[in-house]
Every structure is written in structure tokens, then in C-alpha cells.
Amino acid sequence: MKKHLVSVFIAGAVLLLHAPANAMVVVDRVIAVVNEEIITLSDLQREETLKKAGGGQNERLLLEDMIDRKLQMAAAKRAGMDVTDKELTEAVADIMKRNSLDDKQFEAALLKEGISLEQYKAELREQMTLSRVFNKYVRSGLAVEETDLRAYYERNSGKYSLPEEIRVRRIFLKLPDNASASQAAAVLDRARTAYKRAKKGEDFVVLVREFSDGENASGDGDLGFIERDHALPEIEQAARALKPGEVAEPLQFSGGYNIIRLEEVRNQVKPFEKVKDEISNALFQQKLENSYRSWLQTLRGDSHIENRL
């Protein structure tokens, strides 16, 4: 404990010694101790600037993230996973190449974001190191078994449901162009006759061929499966009130009278093979997060941490 207090005292002294004599002194303070290292208020403020977090409401979460990073960096150092200067230089060169930037353009782009080249390199070195240690202690060895994928699919089949579909048949009786009242009445009378016979249970396909006009006359009236939201509003509305096998009264739309029979309502689920990769990614991500949390808990349990914010 004395060792930690000495470190805190020295850090505070350094901050005061470097304050300009004629400047307003803003007192910095230690807000966290992580083993032998400290995090100051100014460190947190720099982090807020870099992350563009802003506002005090995220400060605690941001500080916890900084603590976690220090613990991971320490783990990387113990494992000899530090990024060398050569590796860092090569990484920066690769980034410039992929963005088609030379040295001057790259530095100018960084300055535009308010970051110096040295700051960027320090951040990049940390990210490369964290990636290495993450892959070694968190990602390594993780896999999702086929049985887990199928079990998840069975438990959550509702998530993979396709839109409800309806299959309908119709008898279509065309109204003549500019039909007179008597002509319209005659067509309606035929439609009502067809409807009554259908209601009595006569073969609907036979009725289609007897009563339907135009191209419908030679077919079976089957419109196939249609997503409910993609059906004509009149067909959709009529089908809503029907059970499979039932027939709706004649409806006037599409230039004539229509008699709709609901054949089937289908609720399909996407096949397992179609969603296998999606499930695999989701389960792997879940395992990754659980592994990461468990590892962080171990690091924290083996460390001395003081959060003073």
C-alpha cells in the first residue's frame, strides 16, 4: 500500500512542477490505480477527446474501459506480446498504402482530426497489442458445434419465420367496357349463381372453367401463394374473413366480378441451411463475449484496482 501512495505522490508532484508559472493551475488528480500504474483526470479527458464521448454521463464507463485496457496491456507484456517498432512502422505504412497517402498527406489527415503522428502510433501500438492478447486468451480455441446450431434453430424457429402466405383461386366475370345497367346486372347475376353453387360444394375448378372470362376460362383459377402484404387489397381483405375451403361473395374489382376461394394459409420457416451461418456467427459472438468477460474478471481478481472517480 505504501508503494502505491508513493507512486501517487510522485505523479502529483510531476503534474505541479510542469505547470507554467504564469498560468492558471488546473489541479489534476489520480482517479484510478491499476497495480503499479495510475490513471489521472487528464488521462480520462484526453480519452474523452479521442473517443469524442463528451459529457460526464459516460465518464465512469470510459474509466472502466481504460482500467480494462491497462490490465490487458500488462497481460500482454507478461506474455512477451509487445508490438515491436518494426511491426508498428510496417502497420503504419500499410495503412497509408491502403488509403493512397504519402507521409505528408497522412500527417495532415491526422492533424485535421486533432491527433499527432506520435499519438496515432501510440494508439495503434496499443490496439495491435490488445488484438494479439485478445486472440490468445479469448478467441483461441472457441468453436460452435453443429449440435448447438441445430438446437438454437429449434428453440428459436419463430425468429426465422417467413411472411404469411395465402393461396387463393378465383372465378372472374368480366364487365363489358361502358356496360349498361342491364349488362352489369346480368354479369352480377351470373356471379351470384356461381357463388351459390360454390357455397354448396361444387368443384371450384369446374366452376372456374364454366363461368370465368378471358384467360381465366382455360385455367383452374389458381393464383398461387401470395404474401399477404403483396396481394391485391380486395383479395387480402376477402381472404382475412375466410377459412381454407371457404368462398367469399362476389367482389367488384379489376374490371369485373371476382369470387374468391381461400385454398390454404402457409406459415413457412427459413430452412436451417439458409440461416446456419447467421446462427453460427451469433453463437460464436456470444461465446466470445462470455469468454472475454470471464477473462477480464480473472485479470481484475488478480490485480489491485482503485477507482476513485
How does this structure look, described?
The chain is of the alpha+beta class. Among the domains are: 79-140, Porin chaperone SurA, peptide-binding domain (Triger factor/SurA peptide-binding fold, Orthogonal Bundle); 162-266, Chitinase A, domain 3. The chain contains 11 helices and 7 strands. It has helices at residues 2-17, 41-51, 59-78, 85-98, 103-112, 117-139, 146-155, 181-199, 204-211, 233-240, 272-301; strands at residues 30-34, 37-40, 165-174, 222-227, 251-253, 256-266, 305-307. A 4-stranded antiparallel β-sheet has the order 4-3-6-5. Strands 2-1-7 form a 3-stranded antiparallel β-sheet, sandwiched between helices. Strand 1 and strand 2 form a beta hairpin. Helix 3 (59-78) crosses helix 6 (117-139). The protein is elongated, with a radius of gyration of 36 Å. The model is unreliable at 1-25 (pLDDT under 50).
